Protein backbone atom coordinates (compact mmCIF):
# COMPACT_ATOMS: atom_id res chain seq x y z
CA UNK A 1 0.00 0.00 0.00
CA UNK A 2 3.07 2.27 -0.05
CA UNK A 3 2.21 3.32 -3.61
CA UNK A 4 -1.31 4.28 -2.50
CA UNK A 5 -0.03 6.26 0.48
CA UNK A 6 2.31 8.22 -1.78
CA UNK A 7 -0.52 8.78 -4.26
CA UNK A 8 -2.89 10.12 -1.59
CA UNK A 9 -0.17 12.42 -0.26
CA UNK A 10 0.28 13.78 -3.80
CA UNK A 11 -3.48 14.24 -4.19
CA UNK A 12 -3.65 16.10 -0.88
CA UNK A 13 -0.87 18.49 -1.93
CA UNK A 14 -2.37 19.14 -5.36
CA UNK A 15 -5.90 19.59 -4.00
CA UNK A 16 -4.79 21.90 -1.20
CA UNK A 17 -2.72 23.97 -3.61
CA UNK A 18 -5.72 24.40 -5.90
CA UNK A 19 -7.95 25.26 -2.93
CA UNK A 20 -5.45 27.93 -1.91
CA UNK A 21 -5.85 29.46 -5.38
CA UNK A 22 -9.63 29.41 -5.22
CA UNK A 23 -10.53 30.30 -1.63
CA UNK A 24 -10.02 33.88 -0.42
CA UNK A 25 -7.31 34.46 2.19
CA UNK A 26 -8.36 34.86 5.81
CA UNK A 27 -7.36 38.54 5.78
CA UNK A 28 -9.90 39.37 3.04
CA UNK A 29 -13.15 41.01 4.14
CA UNK A 30 -15.41 39.77 5.56
CA UNK A 31 -12.58 38.31 7.61
CA UNK A 32 -14.73 36.24 9.97
CA UNK A 33 -16.42 34.46 7.08
CA UNK A 34 -13.17 33.61 5.31
CA UNK A 35 -11.57 32.47 8.56
CA UNK A 36 -14.52 30.11 9.08
CA UNK A 37 -14.23 28.71 5.55
CA UNK A 38 -10.53 28.03 5.90
CA UNK A 39 -10.95 26.64 9.43
CA UNK A 40 -13.09 23.82 8.06
CA UNK A 41 -11.52 23.37 4.63
CA UNK A 42 -7.91 23.07 5.81
CA UNK A 43 -8.61 21.12 8.99
CA UNK A 44 -6.73 18.02 7.83
CA UNK A 45 -9.41 16.11 5.93
CA UNK A 46 -8.53 12.80 4.31
CA UNK A 47 -9.31 14.10 0.79
CA UNK A 48 -10.87 10.73 -0.10
CA UNK A 49 -13.18 12.15 -2.78
CA UNK A 50 -10.35 13.97 -4.59
CA UNK A 51 -8.26 10.79 -4.30
CA UNK A 52 -11.01 8.77 -5.99
CA UNK A 53 -11.33 11.43 -8.70
CA UNK A 54 -7.59 11.56 -9.34
CA UNK A 55 -7.30 7.75 -9.28
CA UNK A 56 -10.05 7.25 -11.86
CA UNK A 57 -8.68 10.10 -13.96
CA UNK A 58 -5.21 8.53 -13.87
CA UNK A 59 -6.71 5.18 -14.86
CA UNK A 60 -7.95 6.82 -18.07
CA UNK A 61 -4.73 8.81 -18.60
CA UNK A 62 -6.11 12.24 -17.71
CA UNK A 63 -3.49 14.87 -16.90
CA UNK A 64 -3.42 15.84 -13.24
CA UNK A 65 -3.58 19.52 -14.20
CA UNK A 66 -6.93 18.82 -15.86
CA UNK A 67 -8.26 17.17 -12.70
CA UNK A 68 -7.23 19.49 -9.86
CA UNK A 69 -9.98 22.14 -10.16
CA UNK A 70 -12.75 19.52 -10.17
CA UNK A 71 -11.07 17.71 -7.29
CA UNK A 72 -11.02 20.97 -5.31
CA UNK A 73 -14.70 21.46 -6.20
CA UNK A 74 -15.82 18.10 -4.82
CA UNK A 75 -13.82 18.72 -1.65
CA UNK A 76 -15.51 22.11 -1.21
CA UNK A 77 -18.93 20.52 -1.62
CA UNK A 78 -17.99 17.80 0.86
CA UNK A 79 -16.74 20.35 3.39
CA UNK A 80 -19.85 22.51 3.02
CA UNK A 81 -21.97 19.43 3.71
CA UNK A 82 -19.97 18.66 6.87
CA UNK A 83 -20.32 22.23 8.15
CA UNK A 84 -24.10 22.10 7.71
CA UNK A 85 -24.34 18.50 8.95
CA UNK A 86 -22.68 19.48 12.25
CA UNK A 87 -25.15 22.31 12.97
CA UNK A 88 -27.43 22.04 16.04
CA UNK A 89 -30.47 21.80 13.74
CA UNK A 90 -29.03 18.59 12.26
CA UNK A 91 -26.43 16.35 13.94
CA UNK A 92 -25.41 18.92 16.57
CA UNK A 93 -21.73 17.96 16.77
CA UNK A 94 -18.98 19.83 18.59
CA UNK A 95 -15.91 18.25 16.94
CA UNK A 96 -14.87 17.59 13.35
CA UNK A 97 -11.45 16.49 12.09
CA UNK A 98 -10.12 16.79 15.64
CA UNK A 99 -11.10 20.47 15.98
CA UNK A 100 -14.10 22.46 17.11
CA UNK A 101 -16.83 22.39 14.48
CA UNK A 102 -17.33 25.54 12.43
CA UNK A 103 -20.43 26.69 14.30
CA UNK A 104 -18.78 26.12 17.69
CA UNK A 105 -15.82 28.26 16.64
CA UNK A 106 -17.57 31.00 14.63
CA UNK A 107 -21.29 30.78 15.46
CA UNK A 108 -24.17 29.19 13.62
CA UNK A 109 -24.91 32.05 11.23
CA UNK A 110 -21.31 32.31 10.00
CA UNK A 111 -21.10 28.52 9.67
CA UNK A 112 -24.17 28.48 7.44
CA UNK A 113 -22.70 31.24 5.28
CA UNK A 114 -19.33 29.45 5.10
CA UNK A 115 -21.10 26.37 3.75
CA UNK A 116 -23.04 28.50 1.27
CA UNK A 117 -19.82 30.04 -0.07
CA UNK A 118 -18.08 26.69 -0.45
CA UNK A 119 -21.01 25.25 -2.39
CA UNK A 120 -21.13 28.10 -4.88
CA UNK A 121 -17.33 28.39 -5.20
CA UNK A 122 -17.22 24.71 -6.15
CA UNK A 123 -19.29 25.18 -9.27
CA UNK A 124 -17.44 28.38 -10.16
CA UNK A 125 -14.15 26.48 -9.98
CA UNK A 126 -15.34 24.00 -12.60
CA UNK A 127 -16.98 26.64 -14.78
CA UNK A 128 -13.76 28.70 -14.83
CA UNK A 129 -11.43 25.77 -15.56
CA UNK A 130 -10.32 26.60 -19.10
CA UNK A 131 -8.12 23.51 -19.26
CA UNK A 132 -11.32 21.56 -19.93
CA UNK A 133 -13.58 21.94 -22.99
CA UNK A 134 -16.80 23.83 -22.35
CA UNK A 135 -18.99 20.78 -22.97
CA UNK A 136 -16.98 18.79 -20.43
CA UNK A 137 -17.40 21.53 -17.84
CA UNK A 138 -21.16 21.64 -18.43
CA UNK A 139 -21.35 17.85 -18.08
CA UNK A 140 -19.36 17.92 -14.83
CA UNK A 141 -21.43 20.74 -13.32
CA UNK A 142 -24.70 19.01 -14.19
CA UNK A 143 -23.56 15.62 -12.88
CA UNK A 144 -22.10 16.95 -9.61
CA UNK A 145 -25.11 19.21 -8.99
CA UNK A 146 -27.38 16.19 -9.46
CA UNK A 147 -25.30 14.14 -7.02
CA UNK A 148 -25.55 16.87 -4.41
CA UNK A 149 -29.12 18.03 -4.80
CA UNK A 150 -31.53 15.70 -6.61
CA UNK A 151 -33.99 13.31 -4.86
CA UNK A 152 -31.36 10.56 -4.97
CA UNK A 153 -28.48 12.83 -3.96
CA UNK A 154 -26.59 13.93 -0.87
CA UNK A 155 -29.02 16.50 0.52
CA UNK A 156 -32.03 14.23 0.09
CA UNK A 157 -30.08 11.44 1.79
CA UNK A 158 -29.41 13.72 4.74
CA UNK A 159 -33.13 14.53 5.01
CA UNK A 160 -34.03 10.84 4.92
CA UNK A 161 -31.40 10.23 7.59
CA UNK A 162 -32.96 12.88 9.83
CA UNK A 163 -36.46 11.54 9.21
CA UNK A 164 -35.34 8.01 10.13
CA UNK A 165 -34.02 8.83 13.61
CA UNK A 166 -35.69 6.62 16.21
CA UNK A 167 -37.42 4.46 13.57
CA UNK A 168 -36.89 0.86 12.50
CA UNK A 169 -36.17 0.78 8.78
CA UNK A 170 -35.88 -1.98 6.23
CA UNK A 171 -32.47 -2.77 4.80
CA UNK A 172 -33.58 -1.21 1.49
CA UNK A 173 -34.46 2.04 3.26
CA UNK A 174 -31.13 2.12 5.10
CA UNK A 175 -29.30 1.52 1.82
CA UNK A 176 -31.26 4.34 0.16
CA UNK A 177 -30.11 6.74 2.87
CA UNK A 178 -26.48 5.66 2.58
CA UNK A 179 -26.38 5.76 -1.22
CA UNK A 180 -27.69 9.31 -1.13
CA UNK A 181 -26.04 10.83 1.92
CA UNK A 182 -22.54 9.48 1.25
CA UNK A 183 -22.55 7.42 -1.93
CA UNK A 184 -23.81 10.07 -4.35
CA UNK A 185 -20.82 12.40 -4.08
CA UNK A 186 -18.34 9.51 -4.03
CA UNK A 187 -19.92 8.23 -7.25
CA UNK A 188 -19.81 11.74 -8.71
CA UNK A 189 -16.11 12.03 -7.86
CA UNK A 190 -15.32 8.79 -9.68
CA UNK A 191 -17.46 9.65 -12.68
CA UNK A 192 -15.84 13.08 -12.90
CA UNK A 193 -12.43 11.44 -13.25
CA UNK A 194 -13.77 9.15 -15.96
CA UNK A 195 -15.43 12.04 -17.82
CA UNK A 196 -12.24 14.12 -17.74
CA UNK A 197 -10.34 11.03 -18.96
CA UNK A 198 -12.76 10.57 -21.89
CA UNK A 199 -13.86 7.11 -20.79
CA UNK A 200 -16.18 5.21 -23.13
CA UNK A 201 -19.87 4.67 -22.24
CA UNK A 202 -19.13 1.09 -21.17
CA UNK A 203 -16.23 2.27 -19.02
CA UNK A 204 -18.42 4.97 -17.46
CA UNK A 205 -20.98 2.29 -16.60
CA UNK A 206 -18.31 0.14 -14.95
CA UNK A 207 -16.93 3.10 -12.96
CA UNK A 208 -20.44 4.06 -11.84
CA UNK A 209 -21.00 0.50 -10.58
CA UNK A 210 -17.61 0.49 -8.83
CA UNK A 211 -18.18 3.88 -7.22
CA UNK A 212 -21.75 3.13 -6.16
CA UNK A 213 -20.49 0.17 -4.17
CA UNK A 214 -17.50 2.15 -2.93
CA UNK A 215 -19.77 4.89 -1.57
CA UNK A 216 -21.95 2.37 0.22
CA UNK A 217 -18.85 0.67 1.62
CA UNK A 218 -17.53 4.00 2.92
CA UNK A 219 -20.73 4.70 4.86
CA UNK A 220 -20.91 1.17 6.28
CA UNK A 221 -17.34 1.38 7.55
CA UNK A 222 -18.14 4.85 8.92
CA UNK A 223 -21.09 3.37 10.84
CA UNK A 224 -18.83 0.64 12.22
CA UNK A 225 -16.15 3.10 13.27
CA UNK A 226 -18.75 5.20 15.10
CA UNK A 227 -19.33 2.35 17.55
CA UNK A 228 -15.89 0.72 17.63
CA UNK A 229 -13.45 3.67 17.81
CA UNK A 230 -12.85 6.48 20.29
CA UNK A 231 -13.50 10.13 19.49
CA UNK A 232 -9.76 10.87 19.65
CA UNK A 233 -9.13 8.35 16.86
CA UNK A 234 -12.03 9.47 14.68
CA UNK A 235 -11.50 13.21 15.09
CA UNK A 236 -15.24 13.56 15.70
CA UNK A 237 -17.64 12.53 18.44
CA UNK A 238 -17.93 8.74 18.60
CA UNK A 239 -21.23 7.06 19.44
CA UNK A 240 -23.38 9.79 17.89
CA UNK A 241 -25.31 7.33 15.73
CA UNK A 242 -26.44 5.32 18.74
CA UNK A 243 -27.31 8.42 20.76
CA UNK A 244 -29.37 9.86 17.91
CA UNK A 245 -30.92 6.45 17.15
CA UNK A 246 -29.72 6.65 13.57
CA UNK A 247 -30.65 4.00 11.01
CA UNK A 248 -27.37 2.17 10.35
CA UNK A 249 -26.23 -1.27 9.24
CA UNK A 250 -24.82 -2.13 12.70
CA UNK A 251 -28.09 -1.12 14.37
CA UNK A 252 -29.96 -3.43 12.00
CA UNK A 253 -27.58 -6.38 11.68
CA UNK A 254 -25.03 -6.10 14.48
CA UNK A 255 -21.29 -5.61 14.13
CA UNK A 256 -20.19 -9.01 12.81
CA UNK A 257 -22.88 -9.32 10.15
CA UNK A 258 -22.17 -5.74 9.07
CA UNK A 259 -18.48 -6.58 8.64
CA UNK A 260 -19.46 -9.53 6.46
CA UNK A 261 -21.62 -7.24 4.33
CA UNK A 262 -18.76 -4.75 4.03
CA UNK A 263 -16.56 -7.51 2.63
CA UNK A 264 -19.27 -8.49 0.13
CA UNK A 265 -19.75 -4.92 -1.07
CA UNK A 266 -15.98 -4.46 -1.34
CA UNK A 267 -15.86 -7.52 -3.60
CA UNK A 268 -18.71 -6.16 -5.73
CA UNK A 269 -16.83 -2.89 -6.16
CA UNK A 270 -13.70 -4.72 -7.29
CA UNK A 271 -15.65 -7.05 -9.58
CA UNK A 272 -17.11 -4.02 -11.37
CA UNK A 273 -13.61 -3.11 -12.58
CA UNK A 274 -13.07 -6.38 -14.45
CA UNK A 275 -14.48 -5.04 -17.73
CA UNK A 276 -12.05 -2.09 -17.86
CA UNK A 277 -8.98 -2.74 -20.02
CA UNK A 278 -6.85 -0.07 -18.31
CA UNK A 279 -4.73 -0.74 -15.21
CA UNK A 280 -7.16 -0.58 -12.26
CA UNK A 281 -4.74 -1.57 -9.48
CA UNK A 282 -4.98 1.86 -7.84
CA UNK A 283 -8.77 1.62 -7.76
CA UNK A 284 -8.54 -1.81 -6.13
CA UNK A 285 -6.18 -0.38 -3.52
CA UNK A 286 -8.60 2.46 -2.75
CA UNK A 287 -11.37 -0.08 -2.16
CA UNK A 288 -9.04 -1.99 0.18
CA UNK A 289 -8.22 1.23 2.03
CA UNK A 290 -11.88 2.07 2.59
CA UNK A 291 -12.71 -1.45 3.73
CA UNK A 292 -9.87 -1.48 6.28
CA UNK A 293 -9.83 2.14 7.42
CA UNK A 294 -9.59 2.89 11.14
CA UNK A 295 -10.68 6.56 11.16
List its traits.
single chain; 295 residues; mainly alpha; two-stranded antiparallel ribbon; 2 strands
Would you write up a description of this structure?
This protein has a two-stranded antiparallel ribbon with strand order 1-2. It is an all-alpha fold and 295 residues long. The protein has helices spanning 2-22, 31-41, 48-59, 64-85, 102-106, 108-127, 134-149, 154-163, 171-196, 201-228, 231-234, 240-243, 249-253, 255-271, 281-292, and strands spanning 95-96, 99-100.
Secondary-structure blueprint:
Layout: H1 2-22, H2 31-41, H3 48-59, H4 64-85, E1 95-96, E2 99-100, H5 102-106, H6 108-127, H7 134-149, H8 154-163, H9 171-196, H10 201-228, H11 231-234, H12 240-243, H13 249-253, H14 255-271, H15 281-292
Antiparallel strand pairs: 1-2
Helix pairs in contact: 1-3, 1-4, 2-6, 3-4, 3-9, 4-6, 4-9, 7-9, 8-9, 9-10, 10-14, 10-15, 14-15
- What's the overall geometry? globular
Total helical segments: 15
Average of pLDDT: 93
- As residue ranges, the low-confidence spans are none
Order of helices and strands: HHHHEEHHHHHHHHHHH
Quaternary structure annotation: single chain
Report the end-to-end length measured between terminal Cα atoms.
17 Å
Main beta sheet = 2 strands, antiparallel
Instruction: Going across the biggest sheet, name each strand in turn.
Output: 1-2
Question: What amount of the residues lies in strands?
Answer: under 5%
Instruction: Specify Rg, calculated over alpha carbons.
Output: 18 Å
Give the beta-strand count. Answer: 2
Could you estimate the helical fraction of the residues in percent?
over 70%
Structural class: mainly alpha
Amino acid sequence: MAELTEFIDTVRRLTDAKLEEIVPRSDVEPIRLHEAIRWSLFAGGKRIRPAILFAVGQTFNAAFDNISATAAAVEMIHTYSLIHDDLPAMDDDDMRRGKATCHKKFGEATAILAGDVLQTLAFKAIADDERLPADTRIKLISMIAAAAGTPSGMVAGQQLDLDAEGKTLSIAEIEQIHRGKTGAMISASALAGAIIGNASPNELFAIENYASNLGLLFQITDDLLDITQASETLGKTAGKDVTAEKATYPSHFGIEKTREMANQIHQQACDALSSISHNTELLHQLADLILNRTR
